[in-house]
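To illustrate the input format used throughout this study, we show a single complete record. The first block contains the structure-token representation of the backbone; no residue identities are included at this stage. The design step must infer an amino acid for every position from geometry alone.
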């Protein structure tokens, strides 16, 4: 990220915005996954439900990437 910030003067404004949007999405996903993993603490009450949510979260993002969209 530091290299991208350093090179940001070389990137068009729309690419800088796209980069920042992507970073925001990654941080949001990370927070959601961390919360879901925290729910898996013993006695692992709803492991299947949490794993399904993680799958859906990451699966939706992958589908959007294949269409050239950012989720």
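Output of the design step:
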């Amino acid at each position: 990220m530091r290299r991208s910030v350093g090179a940001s003067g070389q990137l068009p404004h729309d690419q800088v915005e796209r980069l920042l949007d992507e970073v925001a999405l990654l941080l949001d996903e990370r927070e959601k996954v961390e919360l879901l993993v925290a729910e898996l603490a013993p006695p692992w009450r709803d492991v299947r439900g949490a794993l399904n949510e993680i799958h859906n979260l990451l699966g939706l993002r992958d589908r959007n990437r294949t269409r050239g969209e950012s989720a």
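Structural context for interpreting the output: The chain has one domain: 2-66. The chain has a mean pLDDT of 77.
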